[in-house]
Target: Hippurate hydrolase
Amino acid sequence: MSDQDAIDAIMAGLSGPALGELAELYRDLHRHPEPAFEEKRTAGIAAGRLRAAGFEVVTGLGGTGVAGVLRNGDGPTVALRADMDALPVLEATGLPYASTATTPDGVPLMHACGHDMHVTCLSGAAQLLAAGRDRWRGTLVALFQPAEEIAAGARAMLDDGLFDRIGTPDVVLGQHVFPNPAGTLLISPGEILAAADSMEIRLYGRGGHGSQPERTVDPVVLAASTVMRLQTVVSREVSPFERAVLTVAQIHAGHKENVIPDEASITVNLRSFSPEVRRTLLAAVERVVNAEAAASGAPRPPEIRTLNAFPLTVNDGDATARVREAFAGRFGSERVPAMAPLMGSEDFGLFGAEAGAPSVFWGLGGADPDLYARAEREGRLREDVPGNHSPFFAPQLLPTLPTGVEALVTAALAWLPGVQR
Amino acid sequence: MSDQDAIDAIMAGLSGPALGELAELYRDLHRHPEPAFEEKRTAGIAAGRLRAAGFEVVTGLGGTGVAGVLRNGDGPTVALRADMDALPVLEATGLPYASTATTPDGVPLMHACGHDMHVTCLSGAAQLLAAGRDRWRGTLVALFQPAEEIAAGARAMLDDGLFDRIGTPDVVLGQHVFPNPAGTLLISPGEILAAADSMEIRLYGRGGHGSQPERTVDPVVLAASTVMRLQTVVSREVSPFERAVLTVAQIHAGHKENVIPDEASITVNLRSFSPEVRRTLLAAVERVVNAEAAASGAPRPPEIRTLNAFPLTVNDGDATARVREAFAGRFGSERVPAMAPLMGSEDFGLFGAEAGAPSVFWGLGGADPDLYARAEREGRLREDVPGNHSPFFAPQLLPTLPTGVEALVTAALAWLPGVQR
Amino acid sequence: MSDQDAIDAIMAGLSGPALGELAELYRDLHRHPEPAFEEKRTAGIAAGRLRAAGFEVVTGLGGTGVAGVLRNGDGPTVALRADMDALPVLEATGLPYASTATTPDGVPLMHACGHDMHVTCLSGAAQLLAAGRDRWRGTLVALFQPAEEIAAGARAMLDDGLFDRIGTPDVVLGQHVFPNPAGTLLISPGEILAAADSMEIRLYGRGGHGSQPERTVDPVVLAASTVMRLQTVVSREVSPFERAVLTVAQIHAGHKENVIPDEASITVNLRSFSPEVRRTLLAAVERVVNAEAAASGAPRPPEIRTLNAFPLTVNDGDATARVREAFAGRFGSERVPAMAPLMGSEDFGLFGAEAGAPSVFWGLGGADPDLYARAEREGRLREDVPGNHSPFFAPQLLPTLPTGVEALVTAALAWLPGVQR
Amino acid sequence: MSDQDAIDAIMAGLSGPALGELAELYRDLHRHPEPAFEEKRTAGIAAGRLRAAGFEVVTGLGGTGVAGVLRNGDGPTVALRADMDALPVLEATGLPYASTATTPDGVPLMHACGHDMHVTCLSGAAQLLAAGRDRWRGTLVALFQPAEEIAAGARAMLDDGLFDRIGTPDVVLGQHVFPNPAGTLLISPGEILAAADSMEIRLYGRGGHGSQPERTVDPVVLAASTVMRLQTVVSREVSPFERAVLTVAQIHAGHKENVIPDEASITVNLRSFSPEVRRTLLAAVERVVNAEAAASGAPRPPEIRTLNAFPLTVNDGDATARVREAFAGRFGSERVPAMAPLMGSEDFGLFGAEAGAPSVFWGLGGADPDLYARAEREGRLREDVPGNHSPFFAPQLLPTLPTGVEALVTAALAWLPGVQR
Model:
């Protein structure tokens, strides 16, 4: 479907100094990570480049979000999305362009999840597609999203009237750098990333002296029993053919060994791959937590506060087949392996869901292929190839960067009709 | 208060053949144990002897209960109580008069709790007091109660109008043979035996194939979580200065390893020494059981069925002091030690509670004193001296029997005013 | 690969009276269910028909197993397998040929899992292939296995020297009737049925009176805590991308509400789809059970007794593709849907594993297609279409029976080279 | 035994200005609370007053402890003990002399347990007894102990050679102000305060991402299961006739809702009234904690670190009878009620234990008697009368202070033989 000549012509714009300039952009972004909803510098750079390339640009979307629109004749609207926020991780890569940035409170910051690469690739692809607009028709949208890590940025942009302001896309495309060999693109249809729901739960008891439990409602026992009961949600309430996780990663109560506290708090982190399972998990948590409080005779019911909610990331079947075919035609099938579903989560899917449009999300290999191959042989992939969120995570600039740019261009052109010359 | 001359005169009736005859009665009763509410033969013997001694006799009280009344002039009414039922235990004493009796279903029966001794002593004391009625004034009541072991007989007699039919006593006295040295009488004021409440609880789930837990509500998990939660009742809800036990002695669910059953059942056995603690325990069981069912999403709430309920046995302070003093005057203080409270239970206390009269319950030593002394020296009391309900339980006939008779006579005369001669 | 002419020629033998005779065989077998390892009548019928068809026959294999061998020139050895045992289910189908059989103890028996259909189809296919032996070359083996339901029959035949006595097959084929539309054949490569391991675990405590827990080691608490802890195996130790079940379907302890028993017993039923997960589950059960006993201060360690162990059923990729292609060519693709993996289990896989040969196991639809279609529309498949082990389970004779025969013939001929005529 | 004339003569020294001066000392101490082992100012004041009264004084005992010895002829050695440390409580009494002190770190400090009253009373009694030394013979020891609140000060003084340096007492006496009516002295023989043992337990797991529990050993589940299991120690392993508490008042694990942490920590606080029960509790905690770690497959065993250990406080029978009789003779029986045992704890008992001497510890009422009486009538004692450790705890200066002084004098003279004049 895509026209290799058109892609060739457009990608020609990346050769030589242009790639060097993009690499410099990447290093600059990497050196200047910004936390969720604070991506002002990053957003400014993205917006400036879009404008320079001829896009109409809307900024401040949902806080720091940026949208660029390039209307280029009749044809579908294709949205390409990148996320911008960094993580509170102390960089340990030792790279010359390693981050030393911190928040005002001194929390270290690092682009440990590769969003700098996402921004760079999309900036490059937008520029190339704009420069080569005589080879295609339609409308190109570039979305630079804040706050992906806390599942809040996509929602914020949408709630800020994104599609009212720039139009509704016919397809939404996105990519994420993963610790797979650089040069590969991982893509599969269907559910590829889990939905994730997190909540903080306060369990109320009644405190007192440690020697007089009968005058208290012990919140430590309540929390412990709740944690044990919550184990039965996955073990008994979810089909073994479904994929689900319920993790209580935090439990806190008490300040002194002889004083029974008034309350305990736990967090619950749920992962699921279907709306039904998600509903089962959410309902079970609420049921168990309330019943356990009742079993303790708690003076008041627990409070469940949502921390974040990542939607399920689902690649549309037809749209994914189209992108995959375009990738295979461009890069060769051997560079386009299937992407195994991950329990990790994204808020990318919200754009397509809100638009009522198909969306496709693929993986961009970023690991040194030799290192990867050796680690795989030795069964040490997890140990030797730093994964996302690791303080050692650092995509290999080449060929990751040009592959990511070319993937976006190729995928976009799978929808934007070519112009015969 | 009691008059040693009067007791001497009355007890003179026990010498020689009379004691032999009573011993024969004991051996006969021991040979013919009858289960709860089936004590027809025992009741018949007791009633016959009361009639022969001049008592007015009411039979069939609450089934098989017997009450004898001897009105002997002005004065208080003193009730002496014995229980009659045996236990489903296969006797292993090897005694010449050991039981070989069974129920019609073949369940072995044994007087493993000494109720045969209680009946014998009361029969003897009633006979002696009747024969010596010129030495005292007032009304003597002899109560032979069925079904003590299942906490049902006292209630049944009372509900059958006992006090309407024979008058309300001013004091109720009773004794129980224990594995203490024969010849001793154990007595203390206050709470001496625990209240006990037992219930069976059916926990409803929804069954299904073992490979499809998500289509079930697993009652095994529900029962297990309930058992664990019930542990917190004593550990957290009862003051350490109180005495309480909550035992789940039975748990049953399932018939096949790959079929999740529809329900589970547990029993709960509660022991307490105060009405407040008892209420705490009962309320906590109900609260926990219902909340745990809710935590499981049970299709219907648990059913809690009372199995039995033994009241707290409380010795009235003044009345106990009076009996104790009478015993000390008659037997010497060294033969009247304090009785440590026991977690075991009795329904004796219901008579006094219903009458609004004080009641006193004491222990009658039944163990071979030499055996007891040796076992105590060697720290092997529990191992070497068979306790109540053991298949080896066998009070030593002498001096247990005459001591038990004399204790009843002595205690009765502590209330019945002497007649000067 | 298979030759439609050859199949046509062979299947021609089923027309008319031959099919009627097979249907009568099915009804006869249905009327006479026999429990595991007691399949004497069934085995006798199978063996007799094999002999009549010209097979060399070995009987009494592993008890009641039967193997027939038909050597027909050079070529591969193809084994077809059927299982023979019935279930302790009281038939409720209301069919004219419904079972009224029982074990000597009065336990009702029913072919509630369709093994009568398996035996009939294999008898028919063996007869047809023998009659048409001029259309193929090689060796045909027909295996009639006892005791599939208790995971013991395949093992017993193999341990009895099956392959030493009849030779080792190059491929093993089997089918199972399922509540899918009659006329369809369900087939997929890979893991299609779970491995299942069941065990009974005795947890030892130390009994005593319910009022004296401190003198006991309470096995009810031990069992409850063990059940709760076992929930964490699936919730915490198995990847959400794996399929696993751990069910405790039985828990039993105690006989009286006031007597803490000496021990408790539970059963554990494990389901897994990979050897690694299976090892994880088995190791976790052993670890948890022993540690929980230690936490209770148990007087001796638990005893874990294996009840049964079903292997994972894995369809060989190439062999399954070959069978599927043969089915599609014979029945049309629309009648050969994929078979979704089931958590249920089989011991069929042991034959191929022992032979070192690929094996293929497919589903044979047995439900009334109209009933099935309506139920599917109404979302009432589970409610309206009786499944295996249901007292209402009854494959529709036509077209289930001839489809099952033809499937076996077709699959066998996918290996047995045709003879040109 | 005690000589009212002698007491009268000695107590005469307290009238008027002397009492005013002592009251001023109390207010000064109250204004200047010092934490455990930091009682330098308090110790200096106590030592100075002892020296001024004629005592030989040893300071710096076990850090900040002070001992004064007054040798006054033949006769027994009587030790009187007071503790000096304050608590990290923000005073809320509103008193003119309320504390505003803090630690260098800003933690507020308050004499919320009345140790200021203990120091004042002992200073006064020591001074009076020294001044009146012509009325008695023997040796008087005044002990001012640091760090009672953390169960460390008595041990520290003893380990610093206390009795080697000042001689071994024949009896050790101490008092503690309680929220009972001022003017009363509470005293009973036997176990009056519980032993308390506290420990921190680190439970080791292996952390990881919340979506991959199978790659972790979840310490939150381990901690929860441990807490539930620890409930069974009191519910199943301690006789209902014993008094025991096991409280887990702190549980902490995890920093982020999607990151399973490496470890969890809990604290355990044990209370007991007999060495046997204490041993049972300690052994059970160790057993349960280790077994639960094993059940989780923990990478390394838990670490149990003792936080503090308070001994059982046992009043010697004979010595207590002697003090009680002296109090009754001096104050009248109605002002000397029995002291009910408390689950609270003290390290006072270590002195007598180390000395091999009897010890007696009594309660000194400090509450406003009118307030107390009204609260008692209304069943609001706990709500209306501030207890020890409350930010509102404030003994009523009169008559608490002179009663406390006179109690010490009276108790001391119950041992020190009078001198006839």
Observations:
- The domain at 3-193+312-413 of chain A is CATH 3.40.630.10 (Aminopeptidase).
- The two ends of chain A are 17 Å apart (CA to CA).
- Chain A has two domains: 3-193+312-413, 195-310.
